[in-house]
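so my prof wants the structure for this chain in the tokens format not the other one, which i didnt know existed until like an hour ago. anyway here's the sequence
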Amino acid sequence: SEESIRYRFFGMLKDTPHEIRVRYCNIDYDREIAIVAESTKNGKKKLLGVTRLSIDPDGKGGEMAFIVGDKWQGLGLGTKLVDYALEIAKEMGVENIYSIMLPDNYRALSLTKKMGFNLEYLNDGTVKGVLDLREEILEERSIRPKNKRGDFSNIERPDFSEAKGNAEAKKETEAEAKA
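here's what i got, hopefully its the right format
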């Protein structure tokens, strides 16, 4: 819906600017990951939701953005997508993740708060949610949510070993370059 697009992109997009199209098509697999939920009916695939991670060049922080189709909101799919994204970020050694949201995007604010994000209103009128992913902090909070409404238990966890391997190889190369 127009509202969901406004929440994700902070405004309506009549036409997607070339820079954004290039960014979404030319992914830096060492730093950018998109997790897609889709269904297949009568041989046709339908996009249900997407979560994107963009890891900072130093590998310690990153941004997460997500959108779920209106029909699928409130069923736990967003929680599942965000949970996968956070798990991937932890596996990559990311220490903190942030997400920028509009203050009237109550579903996104509720989801991030439920997942343990600290929310802060910014001067530009947006809300920034920050989550510390270091293991000792996560254990203190015990942020694993319980999925109460939708049953997405049949969603298989994708194999991200190749992305993880690329990130580890990059870190090794950077360490060798510093030595």
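also thought this was worth mentioning. Confidence is low (pLDDT under 50) at residues 143-155.
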